[in-house]
């Protein structure tokens, strides 16, 4: 059950409203990485979750994101007010003024309706936590870009608050993943099928999992190169050069024997 | 520039075609976590990427996913063939038979059109890599579920191959994130704004980033509890109990001084 | 600010889970007239609302709908459980089991993603209240149909509770509209531009507003007739017979003089 | 069967074309509350309708809206002409000029494709009529806003005509609802389950239907208050204060006995 | 201006209603190649069209498609009736029964909402006519598949009528394209930039337009071959073998000189 | 299997980047008639195709379009660079800068997400080829419009190359259709059900296929006329004047006897 208190989690103050910036803010209200997306992703994962500790975590943060939705919505509405009063910026986003009367609605900065296609909910707890860590990283960088475009000190403070909380949540989700034994990453522990590289019950096929396919080769006009990194070097990695061109084709992948049959 | 070779990356063999399973397979062809989503997410991140080593990695894997798209599409089509020949299963997915003539199309198992709303592309390399790690985890678990629903040995082998490659990619993206100094996670290094918890340039506000908001409390009828975990215990964490109810409200968040002003 | 309590607003009890019915229930979770649609429509209207009394009403009901979302989501998840455990009903909705691991997600009974295109938010208070009255009527009839398809007494009780609340809300929104002087309807008071037929500031053009265009004529094979009702009879109504065929065309509509110029 | 006459229902005259205003006009061509939405909502309700009198009404107005679609489309196209001729305003809406060659298409003012998710069709006549009354109110306010943004007298006249017709339709749908005994509203007749508050066959649960849940409390920084109105005062209403916080939970709702069981 | 007559263009008779087939029929009501798509594509092209003869053609056929929409909607509704009466087939398409009360709505056979993304409208008359010829071909084959799935003689007759009309329209659009000098095709007249291969004003670059890129090579497991046809043989065609692999890259394409600069 | 070479098919050179033009270019990257749409439409038709010669053609061109996607994406990104560096043009398309960090993403010039609803894939080879011919014509005219809006010589050259290739493909698809005996069009060979007017197996009903319905009549204010063309004149055509108004209604359409029964 939910209860609403008529206080914003962060007191919003706007010096000079800027409808164009208000429009940009909608990216975090009804956009792909915005607060409704966060609130719904975590809360619905929470409804599905059968680990009671993580369920509590998901509901805590899911509920906090609802409070963030209210903060960003209020902030956007304050910036859009001149559009309502005198049509300032209306041509930029006619949807807001003509269809919405100058108020906020659940769309992004380009008027695209919010859709649950934005959400990543698999019902597999560790997978969902990884999706949440990535979601928080995305939300963090979007807030940073909004701050970079913002001149109003009061708005910047509110955005700084919201941005900070994303890092808080990123940490909490990482700790939850760690509590499942799937977060600790060190160059030494990157073993396919174990720890941070473990998902579900079925193990990856041993031979195939170690192959790196060099599917993009050559050099480009703007400095593109075919190069190496930790991902395609090292004793545990077999590089397959240009598999399409070399006639490489896998015929049988047996998870039990670990044998791979190739065909030329 | 792309070149296509008329060989599948994995030789597909289907014993007994099952149109209902063919329909399920579309989840990985035109679905939210499927192969087109993977191919497009990585390839477009690659076009935008200015780190030449990671660009190479993104194009390698993006191209491999195109080859996977071809494998899963061919596998689905083989399973759908009886629907084309005698209408078997047509009522289950009339879109396939009536609109598509029994062939595959870019929709998921419920006929929803593929949309780029599925993709997570931010133009911030480390953020994109985190999104990719999560995307691979999702694809892995979806393949596992398809294997669990599958009776045909040949189909299982193809799915096992594709599933295995997700783990390979998950490892490669983790190593790339590590090459940026943002992957190594240990209980000791979880410092907001540093390493694995660092995104962009603007640091989180010190005081606020350490607060855990206990926004969901009480006990539920099915065992829901208000509990603790590593995410809301420890010296570096301040738990704020039921912020909405306690009159908690942040008024000012200064990233420089690290001071937070609360109001009651 | 929001707070969540780990108690459902209505205690959910399911005797015999039925995944097919669980799938149907998603219509009220992530469907066009479901609880998220209600929660978002009223809460965002509330954020935009400048009448403090109605804002309170909108936030009260918007918050209650969030609690309903939790009830219906929990109920659907209990019915879907056998799909998760043994795949029962999986072919009916592969999206739930393959993509979602047997849990609920924000889509309707046919797997369509929830979209804010479902919402009706205009920023004009009396218009929004009329949209809300209609929304409650739609939700009521959908719950009634779900009850008619349901065999499980415990599920029926939960649905009866949720259905009842729609009538409560319908009454409250009607009273709010009445508090604006725009709800009271009697055959005597249906004057265009006044009371229940008043929207915004610009009055309708007197002559034109009284014309009824008989644009569909003749008799059909299944009893379709060209008939009369209160809407096209009475002293204050001018019926224009088959305007397209009679050469009727309006050339000038003057809101001040009330004169209409027609052209033949 | 339909027939088209090459006369507009309203003669469109544009003095000075304004592509930016032409773009705004698309809101009523291919937008959520526009003329195609109206035409389709009423005509399809008409196809489904089994009350022959109301079916006639729905087809009359549904057909008129098709004629309105033609008027608004022609008006928008005249305003967009300079974009076609010399690219004026093209950067504002590149979709129109690059994809559409300067003509109109079925999208709204922000380029969002028209979708039948905009429609409200339930197959329950009185519910559909309520949706139609609300739809006409929305269309009316959108036309009013377009008039407020418009400088061209000829365009204003056309919009005034179209706006006026929405009030005509609003009245007709209200009279139709009244003919079903569900429209007359007076403070005295607001009885849940009767007349204007009657939907479908299943009555609401007596005790529960009279409860008002005060789910949003406190005072906000911008004057938000927890207040009263006709909806939460009066002898027939039981106010439940902060149900989530007070441990309120409904366990059983019996439509027959009217008894509600609460649990603390 | 439109007028509606309460007669169907084709008298619909259904012997034994079949809700599953009714569901399939929705593909031509609210589906991608259905009657609303046809009606809207042609009518809106007509509104934009400045060639008065072709505008008349587009409005004639656009209006006829509205009459077809009414026929297919009525036919679908007759087949869906048992679902409304006794829930037969409801699990197959819960959207129809739960959300729509057993009536038709503007979605396809899988419940996807109709969207104007289905339409092809470019504002370039000959291009639009080509899109229309293709659209009619698609609609024809979809009707044929529906006939193949249909057991009811009366329904087959209605579908045969609608299918026949697609060929009529295909011919008319081809004749219209011919009246623009862009339809007549013979092996002799396939000259890029002329007649049937002429679009717009800018001519294609001579050298490049004659190159055929053999981008897919090799042999596949199911008989896929790298082969020849009229499209990559003949004196006027230069085949570029595996351009990506051969280092082929175009550096400059001059429409005036017809010279192409390649780079290795 | 696919391989990627780090060379663009056309060397992209941009003199003065123009973010607003970069935004327009997205129409051909993630837009309805853009390169991803082309690549996917042909490649998936190719996967479904059972004619090995046409399958090769579809894979050749499908793969080339992937290379075009890379060219247009790189070109758009070069034009968008100033938006990334200093926010130039950010208000025009906030989605690019705020959500995408200044890079390209799979949406069109108005920010609409790419959707497979853009694709036309029926699994009937000749129908698909007709759809492809029309698709190439649309892509050609869109490139021409982009060239007309472009001032930068280097960009124009790249667009000229891409535009030219559409004509090449249009010719190839026409030749493929001809190889099936369905392309040659001359005024003499337009026989319904034969050659260019042949689709599928079921012949059109003889009498009905020759009827032209004059469904739009009269004269309009802007020169609209009810006129004749090759499509409604000639011995083989029966014109039915205003069928809706004349009581025309088809009762029986027998494909065998060719008899049509009308009813008045």
From TrEMBL, chains A, B, C, D, E, F:
Tell me yes or no: is Zinc-finger among this UniProt entry's keywords. Answer: no
Q: According to the lineage, what is the superkingdom?
A: Bacteria
The protein, known as: Mn-containing catalase
Where does the record place a coiled coil? none
State how the cofactor is bound: Binds 1 Ca(2+) ion per subunit. Binds 2 manganese ions per subunit.
One GO term in the molecular function aspect is: metal ion binding
Q: Which InterPro entries match?
A: Ferritin-like, Ferritin-like_SF, Mn_catalase, Mn_catalase_dom
Q: Which cofactor does it need?
A: Ca(2+); Mn(2+)
């Amino acid at each position: 059950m939910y209860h609403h208190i008529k206080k914003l989690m962060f007191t919003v103050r706007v010096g000079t409203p800027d409808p164009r910036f208000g429009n940009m803010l909608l990216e975090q209200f009804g956009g792909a990485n915005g607060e409704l997306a966060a609130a719904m992703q975590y809360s619905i994962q929470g409804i599905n979750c059968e680990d009671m500790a993580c369920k509590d975590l998901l509901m805590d943060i899911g509920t906090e994101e609802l409070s963030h939705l209210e903060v960003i919505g209020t902030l956007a509405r304050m910036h859009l007010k001149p559009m309502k009063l005198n049509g300032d910026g209306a041509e930029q986003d006619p949807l807001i003024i003509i269809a919405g009367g100058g108020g906020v609605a659940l769309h992004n900065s380009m008027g695209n309706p919010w859709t649950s296609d934005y959400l990543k909910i698999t019902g597999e707890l560790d997978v969902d936590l990884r999706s949440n860590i990535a979601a928080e990283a995305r939300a963090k960088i979007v807030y940073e870009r909004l701050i970079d475009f913002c001149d109003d000190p009061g708005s910047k403070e509110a955005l700084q608050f919201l941005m900070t909380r994303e890092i808080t949540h990123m940490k909490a989700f990482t700790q939850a993943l760690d509590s499942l034994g799937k977060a600790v990453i060190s160059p030494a522990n990157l073993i396919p099928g174990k720890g941070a590289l473990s998902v579900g019950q079925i193990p990856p096929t041993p031979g195939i999992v170690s192959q790196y396919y060099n599917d993009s080769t050559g050099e480009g006009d703007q400095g593109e190169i075919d190069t190496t990194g930790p991902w395609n070097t090292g004793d545990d990695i077999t590089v397959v050069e240009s598999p399409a061109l070399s006639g490489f084709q896998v015929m049988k992948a047996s998870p039990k024997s670990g044998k791979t049959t190739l065909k030329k």
